[in-house]
UniProtKB/TrEMBL annotation:
GO MF annotation list: protein-containing complex binding
Source species of the chain: Pollutimonas nitritireducens
InterPro entries linked: ComplexI_NDUFA9_subunit (IPR051207), Epimerase_deHydtase (IPR001509), NAD(P)-bd_dom_sf (IPR036291)
PANTHER family for the chain: NADH DEHYDROGENASE [UBIQUINONE] 1 ALPHA SUBCOMPLEX SUBUNIT 9, MITOCHONDRIAL, NADH-UBIQUINONE OXIDOREDUCTASE 39 KDA SUBUNIT-RELATED
UniProt protein name: Epimerase
Span of domain NAD-dependent epimerase/dehydratase: 13-225
SUPFAM superfamilies, per the entry: NAD(P)-binding Rossmann-fold domains (SSF51735)
Entries under CDD domains matching the protein: NDUFA9_like_SDR_a (cd05271)
Pfam families the UniProt entry points to: Epimerase
Amino acid sequence: MANTATLSSKPRVLVSGGTGFVGKNLVRTLVDAGYVVTVLSRHADLHKDLASPPLLRVLGLPMNLDAHGPEPSAALVELLKGHVALINLVGILNEPRHNGEVFEQVHVGFTKQILTAAHQAGISRYLHMSALGADAINGSSVYLRSKGRAESWAHEFGASHGIAVTSFRPSVIFGPGDSFLSRFASLARLMPGIFPLACAQARFAPVYVGDVSKQFLEALNDPGRAGQHLDLCGPRDYALRDLVDYAARVSGHPRRILPLPDWVAQIQARVLELAPGQPFTRDNYASLQTPSVCAAGCARQPTRLEDIAPDYVGRSSS
């Protein structure tokens, strides 16, 4: 256990969304780098195993996502005091009502409340998780438009309130515990020889979760990255069908990939968005119409999918 004098000299960072796949990796990276981390969670009791006091705390989230307007609670402002930076990883891929309301609450409303609270608490550094393709006006899906609005608002608010904002726009993120390659490997195990696949030509540049965490840490330590929107991609681009084929083979369940015509894919989305867990929705389909790849000349992250995936994809699908 760190002694009191040593602990008081360490910078404190608060992470919202720190109990998810990326968050768990990032908070470990931050603690290893010498930060004291507070993780905010709406379900703190379910994540006590993540805590490692006094260097890592998991606390309940004192706010109401259904509240209208950005004004935060006094309890949230008080909780944020004493931290040098706020990192916001909160996000969802699907919503229950398919009308954009929950995307707006979680992505835009939450960002407004917690960043306003950070300003009132005296925090001057903010790191924001967005997504490749996020665009408030031209995003191809409700998800991407809501992510774009949140990202734009954060930068505008930061510029006018003295908060240094950096946003990160990753392609799909892979690593142990992901819900991408692991999910396709599990589905392949259930398929009888043929894997019907919607949007088989959709493009991705998978980026390793460890590289994403490293970029957050470097930005946190580099004031020169304030104001930047950083695209994060792995070393190469893939079609979705190639990623699914790879996950199936590595997991020991090779399948023939059957690309579905667009009209069938859209029907599939209408049906599956009604299933438990919403494995595929019409908004997911719309998101896949935008290639999740970086522009030419963008600095690529180094870790190859093929160097990491075999160590966990097979285990997750068995």
